[in-house]
Amino acid sequence: MLSELRQLLKHPWQFYLQKAHGIYLDRTLQETFALQKAKLLKQSLEGPVDFGPGMIGKALEIDILEKKEELLAKCTPVTLELREGSREPKWEDHRYIVPPLEVPLEKGSVVLTGTIHQTSREGMLSFRPDTIAGSLQVWSDALISSIFFGCPHLRILKEDRVRSIENPEKHLAALLEYFLIALRCPSPLLSHWTDPILRKGMEALEKARLQGPSLEDPVYDWVVSRTELPT
Q1: Which of 27, 72, 93, 111 gets the most CB atoms within 10 Å of its CB?
Q2: Higher pLDDT residue, 109 or 189?
Q3: If you average pLDDT over residues 164-179, what whole number do you get?
Q4: Phi and psi for 164 in degrees, rounded to 5?
Q5: CB-CB contact of 47 with 21 (8 Å)
Q6: pLDDT above 60 for 123
Q7: Whole-prediction pTM value?
Q8: Distance between CA 24 and CA 21 in Å, rounded?
């Protein structure tokens, strides 16, 4: 369930095509250098990383390991596992194992299981930019981490900022209601439309719609090549 929530937040159209129609498109996206480095930093927290040969590999190694040391000086990354069959919370090294989380909804409830990596007792770690779209990528993990660790914070590593999360239980229930709706019809919360929809308004959304995504997106291209976007 947690992986499906992440998929929805990362790309709602890809999520809908897979869940509603069983269509699996190859979504090999062009990545910015900053995003590639963020992935290397995440990998370095899990174990040794091969940075490659030569001067570029050495420069990457120095840069990533410096950032890793800065991060470890502020908090200790841990893994949160909502394990099916677990009855009592317990620690196993840097893994916090807890029972599944049942979230009441307007009609019924949802039981969440799964694993969240790179969180901490001081707040969820985000390797994304300090934007609405960036925070949305880790929103479900941040809410669940806030509930279990009692520290409702999102730590934006790139800008060294900490964002507070108010009432994570309420927001998690709202997110799950949104998830159920997104199973029935495609959500418009694509990465490049998120900020206009949630904050800036229709004029900004129209501009974003005309410009298209800033990075190559095969799923978006597949959809818009076959239909017209609403105006």
Answers
A1: 27
A2: 109
A3: 96
A4: -85, 150
A5: no
A6: yes
A7: 0.79
A8: 9
Helix (H, G, I), strand (E, B) or coil at 25: coil
Q: How far apart are CA 11 and CA 137, in angstroms?
A: 9
Assign 230 a pLDDT band (cuts: 50, 70, 90).
low
The full set of domain ranges for the chain reads: 2-30+75-224, 31-74
Q: In this structure, what token pair is assigned to residue 41?
A: 């930093």
At 155, give phi and psi (nearest 5°). Answer: -95, 110
Q: Strand, helix or coil at 67?
A: helix
94: DSSP letter: T
Average pLDDT, the chain: 84
Question: What letters, b where the CB count within 10 A reaches 16 and e where it falls short, cover 139-170?
Answer: bbbbbbbbbbbebbbbbbbbeeeeeebeebee
Chain position carrying tokens 């969820």: 124
Alpha carbons 187 and 15: distance in angstroms, whole number: 9
Q: Is 108 left (phi over 0), alpha (psi -120 to 50) or beta?
A: left
What is the DSSP secondary structure assignment for residue 68, as one 8-state letter?
Answer: H
pLDDT tens for residues 16-68?
888 877 877 665 555 566 667 777 787 777 778 887 777 777 877 888 888 77
